[in-house]
């Protein structure tokens, strides 16, 4: 009898766990496929910048986007908006889209369920208080749970991921392949070495992923916050420039992330 009860409880817990993590994963896979298909069909590119605003990089990104005459979507961390509200407002003032990226950038897989959910709502609330009114939410590290997805929707923000990683956070650049292994490893990658980054900087004009996005479109993940390796900042700027110039040459149209919802 006890064995049956334990078995049922274990089964229920496994099912709950599967739904908690599996539904967001399915959503991400489905959205990624839909984005690839729509961007490819209409030749669209959305530039997205995560983890700002920061005084070190956001103003440089804004100046570059002005020079290139292109608009982008900035997924901001609440705590950084609180530290640099004037930069956050400047992003919006220059015609870019502002979206939510949680309050403290907590990895929802590593914190308690309520903490992860609170991180979402506090981030959106803070941005609303600053009159930034986001309507998209990007889960930190791309990781979400059923709880964080529901909370984002409750706060009026649709979850939004990406199709291509620029590699400027020290991740291998290219199309995001959402196999289970990649999904589990995401966020636990070891940083690229300085030598590898230097190599990426030198061949950025010929990088395969820039060629691919220029040709078939996509949603590209960049960062407007400097990480541990200073050379990655230069990669953000040079890859943005190369992508915009290459894509424009091939007739690709740039859109804001919310236009692809
Ligand atoms: Zn992030």
Describe this structure in words.
- It is a single chain.
- This protein has 261 residues and is α/β, with parallel strands linked by helices.
- The chain has one domain (26-260): Glycoside hydrolase/deacetylase (TIM Barrel), CATH 3.20.20.
- It has 10 helices and 9 strands.
- The strands form 2 sheets. Strands 1, 2, 3, 6, 7, 8 and 9 form a 7-stranded mixed beta sheet that branches. It has a two-stranded parallel ribbon with strand order 4-5.
- A hairpin with an 8-residue loop joins strand 6 (164-165) and strand 7 (174-175).
- It is globular.
- It starts with a helix and ends in a 7-residue tail after the last strand.
- Zinc ion binds at residues 50-51, 101, 105, 140.
At a glance:
By secondary structure, the protein is an alpha/beta fold. It has helices at 2-42, 58-68, 78-83, 85-93, 113-129, 146-154, 180-185, 194-202, 208-216, 231-249, and strands spanning 44-50, 73-76, 97-100, 136-137, 158-159, 164-165, 174-175, 218-223, 253-254. The protein has one domain (26-260): Alpha-Beta Barrel (TIM Barrel), CATH 3.20.20.370.
> Which regions contain 5 or more consecutive residues with pLDDT less than 50?
none
- Count of helices? 10
Q: Spell out the CATH superfamily.
A: Glycoside hydrolase/deacetylase
What letter string, H or E per element, gives the SSE order? HEHEHHEHEHEEEHHHEHE
What is the first-to-last residue Cα distance? 50 Å
- The average pLDDT is 90
Per the CATH scheme, the topology name is TIM Barrel
| Number of self-contained structural domains | 1
Q: Using the alpha-carbon principal axes, give the shape.
A: globular
Please tell me the CATH architecture by its name.
Answer: Alpha-Beta Barrel
Sheet with the most strands, sense and barrel status: 7 strands, mixed
CATH class: Alpha Beta
Quaternary status of these chains? single chain
The number of distinct β-strands equals 9
- Helical/strand content category: alpha/beta
Q: Which range best describes the helical content: under 10%, 10-25%, 25-40%, 40-55%, 55-70% or over 70%?
A: 40-55%
Cofactors and ligands present?
zinc ion
Q: Could you tell me the radius of gyration in angstroms?
A: 19 Å
Q: Which percent range describes the beta-strand content? A: 5-15%
